Amino acid sequence: MTCLESGDRNGQNDSDSPPGPGRTLCVRRDNVLHARAVLLREANELRAFLTVMARGLEIPPLADDLVSRDAAAAFTHRLRDADDSYFMRCWQYTDNLLAAAAELATVARKYGYTEAEIAASSPLFAGRSADDGAEAFLAATVVE
């Protein structure tokens, strides 16, 4: 069994994350590819959703005056465009899912899986490198 600790992935330190399940992911040879596929799929679906939602997070000015335009820009920035905006926090979560999937690809290699087997375990990403990320199923053991 191999366990991955959540932590500093893609420059995102989640030490301020609330305690709970999902902080450590343990996989075995028989479920590592499935777990990777789940993570990739979840990241892909969430990114597709966020891409659609991004347009709706642009706040239009309520009037054609300087204050309304500035307020609309400030709200849009806070909701969507700022590095710590709610939208970007969700996008960074997908980055973390993809980073975890890449770590699981490394674990799968250590378990003896070939690049072809790793790529084939994620149908949406067949033909890509195992580290390109995008899908995975969590039949993995999650340890708190």
UniProtKB/TrEMBL annotation:
Protein name as catalogued: PE family protein
Disordered: region residues: 1-24
